[in-house]
Design a protein that fits this description.
Layout (H helix, E strand, L loop, with lengths): L9 E3 L6 E3 L14 E2 L2 E5 L10 E4 L7 E4 L5 E5 L4 E4 L14 E6 L7 E5 L12 E5 L7 E4 L17 E3 L7 E4 L6 E4 L7 E2 L26 E6 L13 E5 L6 E4 L7 E2 L8 E8 L4 E7 L10 E7 L5 E3 L15 E3 L7 E5 L8 E5 L7 E2 L1 E5 L2 E4 L1 E3 L28 E4 L7 E4 L4 E4 L11 E5 L9 E5 L7 E5 L6 E2 L17 E8 L2 E10 L6 E4 L7 E2 L8 E7 L5 E7 L4 E4 L6 E2 L8 E4 L7 E5 L2 E5 L7 E2 L9 E6 L7 E6 L5 E6 L7 E2 L3 E10 L9 E8 L2 E7 L7 E2 L14 E3 L7 E3 L7 E5 L23 E11 L2 E10 L5 E2 L2 E5 L5 E6 L1 E6 L2 E6 L5 E2 L4 E9 L11 E2 L2 E2 L1 E2 L1
Parallel strand pairs: 3-58, 31-35, 62-73
Antiparallel strand pairs: 1-2, 4-61, 5-6, 6-7, 7-8, 9-10, 10-11, 11-12, 13-14, 14-15, 15-16, 17-18, 18-19, 19-20, 21-22, 22-23, 23-24, 25-26, 26-27, 27-28, 29-30, 32-33, 33-34, 34-35, 36-37, 37-38, 39-40, 40-41, 41-42, 43-44, 44-45, 45-46, 47-48, 48-49, 49-50, 51-52, 52-53, 53-54, 55-56, 56-57, ...
Keywords: Carbohydrate metabolism, Glycosidase, Hydrolase, Polysaccharide degradation, Signal
InterPro entries: BNR_rpt (IPR002860), CBD2 (IPR001919), CBM2/CBM3_carb-bd_dom_sf (IPR008965), CBM2_carb-bd_dom_sf (IPR012291), WD40/YVTN_repeat-like_dom_sf (IPR015943), Xyloglucanase_GH74 (IPR052025)
Pfam families: BNR, CBM_2
């Protein structure tokens, strides 16, 4: 293949941490948004983890600088001060949702401000966009990117191998990327701005997990899987000459270049019959270590080895900790202690039962010890203690018989890294969390070391459904892989996921509107049951019976008073029951696979939708009648009935090739009217009405006015306000959305890999004043105010700040102007949720119109990016309309 140069297609536009491309649709640019915007703050409903972490990368030249990658939920940077992770890719938009899958990360040892991410979720048709290499010169605060002419697979088989992306430790303008799908080895010589194929590299790989799979998933060639430099073969500013590359080819899994990548050859004498998941070089000893498995992982692997290559003599040696006949797993996680040459660790990533295993050697692999040993089957002795009190659900509520334990040491443990500056700190990823220790060397002295979750800030769940009852817990969630939670405190990790029954993934849940203690959930499981009921708002559960033929959860609906339920499971048609599912009766008049919901006022009324037709039952789900037609016949469609009003239904969904948008019915689905101006919509939900408003707040994940985002309406859809911004997009958000019926403006948004996003508004109303309330006089001349000014991000020459203005007086503002002087000569470059002018160091910021009215006790906020030189001190004083404000 001829070399193909790729230009850097993206540059920073708008708010920080937002990548843009010159081929991006204009509608994605904040400057084109004609819809009003509101000042929202966003956070996760805390779960902590919940998904696979296949990669952890420490920078080798700066202490405490580390990154983690997830398969569908973006990348994170470690924040040592808070001992938590900071998300870096929340700016990824709807059209490029695949960029939330991170196949590899690389941190620059020459300039630690530089970090790179190779992104793309699937290499087959499931992901509509090509992959890209993102690059940041401010540790992920902002990004540029080069789009590749092929796809990358952050959620494909083999995703735990790596790292596929590497920066030359001597000449950091040189990077290499191992590509999947037979696309070979790629190189950049301009710090990731452009890329071309290394045509001299002889082997693009040939291993596929399942060659018989025709979907493009299991039969994809896993390609080039890691790149490792021997930094001893270069010098500062000169390219490293010795480069090692791992290939998904069981007979030819390691290649080397000794001339800076000009030529390549298979290393003779290497092990065969295995794939090298990792290749790590201990530069102090000159040993290259390989962890090998007979498959690509992350789920499979029945045999494995560890080999050592002496780069000086060319000798290979099998240094595996156990005999090949005794392995029932493959090896993957691999790290060397940069402070203690000859010390290394490895994981048995696919040892699912009874537990994963971690091995450690202090003599270059000559001898090993392991994290746990049998003391006489089935009893075991652990070299560690595992404390999950900060994330208690990691116990899964299990009480297994030995040799299993709860919580487990892990599974899918393909990422393990010893801190290059601290021999006592080690982190490793599992299929559900990041574990770590800060007293690792106790292992060598015969003591025990303490493992705890080091996962705070990583929120990696895929969200299928959300519910916010009018009483009880504020939020109930239906999640992939870990079932879901009853969230009594949005800022605290729940004690345990739903149990009794245990469902692998919860696909749908509902509560009785007038009796919110009654809750039902359904989901996927290897065997029955697939349904559970609760009478105490989800605190405790009991399993129900199910119709014959059920294979999956589907959707479920609870009658408004909890007197009955309608269930549309996979593998069986729609069924209904009274009571708690002791017996089910097939519903008539509605096709199998229909989505079902309940009327939120009339307990006898249920609704269904399938293939463009809306169905209604008025007898508790026994019989359905086809009503409105002409609705979206393809694509995902979701609908909700308005609480408190019979027959008021909102329906969202469709596809680009057919009908797509938002519809409303006020006659129980007999007719629907399409909402003007809503070009696309994918989920809809309701929250508390704005003060003075007569209709509940409507929330949608939609495209309105050419802009994709999360929108709110306080006037029954007559007008819409965008409530997220370009820094908070989270890829795909189409599964579920709901407001909180108890807190105006609060919204819960589903993501596919970034957990549950919680939005809180600074807008005190938006719907006028309460009836009969005197709004008081207009803004007085002696307005009282308080200002907080916070620098939320800073990098060399630039920064981001958020400013909040609180009305501490007793009368509402009717428009406002805030003034200050910068002490360090800072210059504002871009502002949002306000406008500004700057004359030298003097700044005047004016409200955006929609946020000009600020009630007593309420606040308005805005943010901006700016430049600085010398210092970036905060302003000491602020004035509002010429009057001094309190600062703090």
């Amino acid at each position: 293949m001829a070399a193909l140069a790729l230009t850097a297609g993206l540059s920073l536009i708008g708010t920080p941490a937002v990548a843009r491309s010159d081929d991006a649709p204009a509608a994605t640019k904040a400057s084109d948004v004609s819809i009003a915007a509101d000042t929202y703050t966003w956070k996760n409903a805390r779960i902590d983890g919940g998904g696979f972490v296949p990669g952890i990368v420490f920078n080798r030249s700066e202490k405490n600088l580390a990154y983690a990658r997830t398969d569908i939920g973006g990348a994170y940077r470690w924040d040592q001060s808070g001992k938590q992770w900071k998300p870096l890719l929340d700016w990824v938009d709807w059209d490029r949702w695949g960029w939330t899958g991170v196949v590899s990360l690389a941190s620059d040892t020459v300039d630690p401000d530089n970090v790179y991410a190779a992104v793309g979720t699937y290499t087959n048709s499931w992901d509509p966009t090509d992959g890209a290499v993102l690059r940041s010169s401010d540790r992920g605060a902002s990004w540029k990117a080069a789009t590749l002419p092929f796809k990358l697979g952050g959620n494909m088989p083999g995703r735990g191998m790596g790292e596929r992306l590497a920066v030359d430790p001597n000449k950091n303008s040189v990077l290499y990327l191992g590509a999947p799908s037979g696309n070979g080895l790629w190189r950049s010589t301009d710090a990731g701005a452009t890329w071309s194929e290394v045509t001299a590299f002889p082997n693009p790989g040939n291993y596929a997990q399942d060659p018989s799979d025709t979907s493009g998933y299991g039969n994809d060639n896993q390609g080039i899987v890691w790149v490792t430099f021997d930094e001893r073969s270069g010098s500062a500013g000169s390219a490293t000459q010795d480069i090692y590359v791992g290939v998904a080819d069981k007979e030819n899994t390691v290649y080397r270049s000794t001339d800076g990548g000009a030529t390549w050859s298979r290393i003779p004498g290497q092990p065969t019959g295995y794939l090298a998941h990792k290749g790590v070089l201990d530069s102090a000893t000159g040993h290259l270590y390989l962890t090998l498995s007979d498959t690509g992982g992350p789920y499979d692997g029945g045999k494995g080895r560890i080999w050592r290559y002496d780069t000086a003599s060319g000798a290979w040696q099998d240094v595996s900790p156990v005999a090949e006949a005794d392995t029932y797993y493959g090896f993957s996680g691999l790290s060397v202690d940069r402070q203690k040459p000859g010390t290394l660790m490895a994981t048995a990533y696919s040892s699912w039962w009874p537990d994963t295993q971690i091995f450690r050697s202090t003599d270059s692999g000559a001898t090993w010890t392991q994290a746990w040993d049998y003391t006489g089957y089935p009893n075991r002795s652990n070299r560690y203690t595992l404390d999950v009190s900060s994330v208690p659900w990691l116990s899964w509520g299990a009480s297994p018989a030995p040799p299993e334990t709860a919580p487990k040491l892990g599974w899918m443990t393909e990422a393990l890294e010893i801190d290059p500056f601290d021999s006592d700190r080690m982190m490793y990823g599992t299929g559900a969390t990041v574990y770590g220790t800060e007293d690792l060397t106790a292992w060598d002295s015969g003591g025990t070391f303490r493992i705890t979750p080091m996962v705070k800030g990583i929120e990696e769940t895929a969200v299928n459904d959300l519910a916010s009852p009018p009483s009880g817990a504020p939020l109930l969630s239906a999640l992939g892989d870990i079932g879901g939670f009853r969230h009594t405190d949005l800022d605290a990790v729940p004690d345990l996921m739903y149990t009794s029954p245990d469902l692998d993934s919860t696909t749908s849940l509902d509560f009785a509107e007038s009796s919110p203690g009654t809750v039902v959930r359904v989901g996927d499981s290897d065997a029955a049951p697939h349904i559970g009921f609760s009478t105490d708002n989800g605190a405790n559960w009991f399993q129900g019976s199910e119709p014959s033929g059920v294979t999956g959860g589907g959707t479920v609906a609870a009658a408004a008073d909890g007197s009955g339920f309608v269930w549309s499971p996979e593998g069986a048609g729609v069924h209904h029951t009274t009571g708690y599912g002791t017996s089910w009766t097939a519903s008539t008049g509605i096709p199998a696979g229909a989505t079902v919901e309940s009327d939120r006022r009339n307990p006898e009324k249920f609704y269904g939708f399938e293939a463009g037709t809306f169905y209604v039952s008025t007898d508790g789900g026994a019989t359905f009648t086809a009503k409105a037609t002409g609705l979206p016949a393809e694509g995902n469609v979701r609908f909700q009935a308005l609480p408190g009003t019979e027959g008021d239904i909102w329906l969202a969904g469709g596809s680009d090739t057919g009908a797509y948008g938002l519809w409303r019915s006020t006659d129980s689905g007999a007719t629907f009217t399409k909402s003007a101006g809503v070009e696309q919509a994918d989920s809809v939900g309701f929250g508390k009405a704005a003060p003075g408003a007569s209709y509940r707040t409507v929330f949608v994940s939609a495209k309105i006015g050419g802009v994709r985002g999360i929108f709110r309406s306080t006037d029954a859809g007559a007008s819409w306000t965008r409530i997220n911004d370009d820094a908070h997009q989270w890829g795909w958000t189409g599964a579920a959305i709901t407001g909180d019926p108890r807190v105006y403006g609060r919204v819960y948004v589903s993501t596919n890999g970034r957990g549950i996003q919680v939005g809180e508004t600074s807008d005190s109303g938006g719907g006028g004043t309460d009836p009969g309330t005197d709004p008081g006089p207009e803004q007085p001349a002696d307005a009282a105010c308080a200002v907080t000014y916070a620098i939320t991000n800073q990098w060399p020459g630039g920064f981001q700040a958020d400013v909040t203005v609180t009305n501490t007086g007793d009368a509402a503002y009717d428009g406002w102007q805030l003034g200050w002087s910068f002490p360090g000569g800072q210059q504002i470059s871009q502002i949002w949720n306000a406008s500004h002018r700057q004359d030298g160091v003097k700044v005047t910021v004016t409200d955006a119109g929609w946020n000009g009215t600020v009630a007593p006790g309420s606040a308005a906020g805005f943010g901006f990016t700016g430049s600085w030189t010398g210092s970036n001190a905060e302003p000491a004083a602020f004035t509002l309309d010429g009057q001094a404000c309190t600062v703090g």
